[in-house]
Amino acid sequence: NAGVTQTPKFRVLKTGQSMTLLCAQDMNHEYMYWYRQDPGMGLRLIHYSVGEGTTAKGEVPDGYNVSRLKKQNFLLGLESAAPSQTSVYFCASSYSSLGRSSGNTIYFGEGSWLTVV
Amino acid sequence: RKEVEQDPGPFNVPEGATVAFNCTYSNSASQSFFWYRQDCRKEPKLLMSVYSSGNEDGRFTAQLNRASQYISLLIRDSKLSDSATYLCVCQTGANNLFFGTGTRLTVIP
Fold first, then answer.
1. Using CA atoms, how far apart are residues A93 and A86, in angstroms rounded to an integer?
2. B44: preceding bond cis by omega (within 30 degrees)
3. Pair A47, A58: CB distance under 8 Å
4. Which of A23, A64, A107, B105 is the most buried (most CB within 10 A)?
5. What does DSSP assign to residue A15?
6. Which pLDDT score is estimated for A100?
7. Residues B101, A39, A57, A61: what is their CA dihedral angle, to the nearest 10 degrees?
8. Among candidates B8, B38, B14, which has minimal Cα distance to B106?
9. pLDDT above 60: residue A101
10. Helix, strand or coil for residue B75?
11. Partner residue opposite A42 with nearest CB, options B32, B91, B102
């Protein structure tokens, strides 16, 4: 059981380049999330999805786009990378809304390290 | 003001020691609370949920004080394998978790 898988794990981009991070989960979870983690900032929510075909903005959505064409996949796109987007990106998923049960667990992927030069 | 604030540490403690981490949150409407553990260059993993009545899981005890908007984690009989960063997490709203910056713990032989 792979859980949540992110690709690529490491990437170096030049300013202005575009790229897509892929997240795949095999747990049949409805909800999926993209977070970024920066030193001194903690994890911050970029975008999330409550089901196939739906997406919503999180705390720091600017500069990113997402798509959820299939239930198991959640893509994070950077159209024109900037050095401020150098970060560690974590995808996560959960069975249902976190608000419905305090015991509902969110599962994270292993992270994608992105450097924009 | 950050949603969740933690002392970043580091906390360096000998094996067998008891160590406590504290965390405060700013939004009184926060609904659920958690402690996550994150190893170096790894993803966060749920350690335990935090309930108003306090809860214990082996050597780990978590407490919540809603009046003071304060959460704590106590680790007894520290093991080398407890070395990690501990993230305090608050849930506000249906789909958002607010993470603290983490408290780094190193258990020394």
1. 23
2. no
3. yes
4. A23
5. T
6. 46
7. 160
8. B14
9. no
10. strand
11. B102
Mean model confidence pLDDT for chain A: 92
**In this structure, what are the phi and psi dihedrals at residue B2, rounded to the nearest 5 degrees?**
-70, 150
Tokens, residue B94: 């249906």
Question: Positive or negative CA dihedral for B36, B86, B92, A83?
Answer: negative
Cis upstream peptide for A39 (omega within 30°): no
Q: Which two tokens stand for residue B4?
A: 């969740």
**Chain A CA closest to residue B2:** A41
A61 in reach of chain B (CB within 8 A): no
* Residues B86-90, mean pLDDT to the nearest whole number: 94
Q: Which amino acid is at B7?
A: D
Distances (CA, A) of A10 to A65, B44, B52, B54, B60: 19, 18, 40, 40, 34
Residue with tokens 């959960």: A94
The residues pairing with B49 across neighbouring beta strands, listed in sequence order, are: B34
DSSP type of residue B76: -
In the predicted model, what is the mean pLDDT of chain B?
92
Q: What is the pLDDT of residues A54-76, one digit of tens each?
A: 999 999 999 999 999 999 999 99
For an interface test with A, the pick among B4, B7, B88, B95 (most A C-beta atoms closer than 10 Å) comes out as B95
pLDDT at A27 over 80: yes
Q: Which residues pair with B45 in a beta bridge?
A: B37
Q: Which amino acid is at B79?
A: K
User: What are the chain B neighbours of A46 within 8 Å (beta carbons)?
Assistant: none
